[in-house]
């Protein structure tokens, strides 16, 4: 998911390769993109369905892998599919290698299907207070049609249940969570709402999951120009004044459907995430592709993952999990200023202590950092060692960077060794490779922001 300096898959090479290597890449992606469900600090109850809380399981028929509303469109465009987050998702397309798709996104515009993500509405007089109790976000200071990255937190430990984007709309909050955490998140929201409602003093909260709602991400320097051609005249006129982290309701010129356009994304490029009613998802997506002609192409999970790693963004289940706090994950900036002063969110006693200086009894023992690695690329799980050969951390994501033509990685390292420029070793195939701690993002972000 996207944001400030927020969010790994590994590939065998930067440049084009034979079909055999391409197959190996696809298999590696499939295995790494299947989310790692770390065990949580506490067991979340499977609360029975309640009429005031509408949600469904990730798959309609047990363990059967589901399809997004754009599956047929992907198939007709030569997509190679992998199971991810309970869905058959395109990893790449026959007309472009993963590296070529990556490069296309950096230079033009790519359209990603992210309809597997879970979209929610929280409304009612207690919605803001409820969301502030389970996240460290300062929602009281967020204006309508503005959004930001946050995290769902475990009560006792402050560990990250999932990362999420929260948008304030005029009459409700729009929340997007990860597909791979669907069942865990639904159980979490159910349990937390049950606890909230058990206190009669708490104002009412209504929760709705937007099942089958479409969601696409249009990313790249030409994304705005492509989207302008698609929107009606009034909506297109508002696009230039829509900045990173802002949203608006809009209309496509060929449809009566109202869509929600949010400026942001997971690649580090300018772009938009567009939420579309299920009945119009395929038609709107096809219209974007036709309107963009030579400027926009479909892209899959393979390019999305190398792009997000270059942008320094986390992938839940790899770079974030139930046992990691926002402070350890270098996400302290998602904790609002007023929340630091007053607390009042899950895990606040742990997190606020971690924010303090070591001299005041605070700090953490490990931190998430980036690495440039010499020789072979470092993969998830590789040990990080200091100059004496002692293990001081683990790699959580790694790949050759198509943009930089260098091997990049992300991981957690012992506090004190986290400063940029620190030289370490990473064990790759039983051999120590030289690496240096590097600031993220690896590739400068190009978000469209106000001056």
From TrEMBL:
The keyword Transferase applies. It catalyses: N(6)-[(R)-S(8)-aminomethyldihydrolipoyl]-L-lysyl-[protein] + (6S)-5,6,7,8-tetrahydrofolate = N(6)-[(R)-dihydrolipoyl]-L-lysyl-[protein] + (6R)-5,10-methylene-5,6,7,8-tetrahydrofolate + NH4(+). Pfam families: GCV_T, GCV_T_C. InterPro entries: GcvT, GcvT/YgfZ/DmdA, GcvT/YgfZ_C, GcvT_C, GCVT_N, TrmE/GcvT-like. One of its GO terms (molecular function) is aminomethyltransferase activity. GO terms for cellular component: glycine cleavage complex; mitochondrion. It comes from the Eukaryota. Its EC number is 2.1.2.10. One of its GO terms (biological process) is glycine catabolic process. Keywords: Aminotransferase, Mitochondrion, Transferase, Transit peptide. Substrate binds at residue 273. It is found in: Mitochondrion. It is an enzyme of class 2 (transferase). Residues 366-443 form the Aminomethyltransferase C-terminal domain. The glycine cleavage system is composed of four proteins: P, T, L and H. The glycine cleavage system catalyzes the degradation of glycine. Belongs to the GcvT family. This is Aminomethyltransferase. It comes from Aaosphaeria arxii CBS 175.79.
